[in-house]
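During the reporting period the student researcher (J.K.) took over the structure-prediction task from the postdoctoral fellow and processed the backlog of single-chain submissions. One of the processed entries is reproduced below for the supervisory committee.
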Amino acid sequence: MTYTLQVTTHASAASARTATTSPIVCEQIMTEDSSVRTAGDIMNVGDIMSGEVFIISPKDNLAHVRNLFMKKEISRVLVYEEQPLGVVSERDLTKTFLEERRGIDEIPAQEIMTSDIVTITPEKTPEETAKIMVKNKISGIPVVDTNNKILGIVTKTDLLRYFYEHYSGEI
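J.K. obtained the following structure tokens:
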């Protein structure tokens, strides 16, 4: 089963919405702070994160994950069961396709997920987030609150967009 968490975080937003969510995810959305920021405020990852996070069960098979990647044009899903357990990325999936001899409909996500998951809180700056991503050789980090509830995800694309918009011509 796949759940989608969508949290609206841009300044003009006043609410959050879900699509096909579980009660756990709905509870997380209700705690989302959607305060308005001014141009003078220092931006943090809560301001630039992607609000749509695709969540799968550890028992979902890789055929489901592959189909989700293609249909939603994403490159990672969060493996979740009451809390974040891991991430399955395109890299994980490709490596498994090349090495594994079983059918992808026989392999559960929990077998290939990266389980030493790195998370950050929304107060981190984009600069701090980029350093964490480079240090850990990852291209996306789930954003969680202090109770480990999912708020969104920051990807390399989010960071590139931020740096392009805020440092264009200064580098």
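The committee noted the following: Confidence is low (pLDDT under 50) at residues 6-40.
J.K. will present the remaining backlog at the next meeting.
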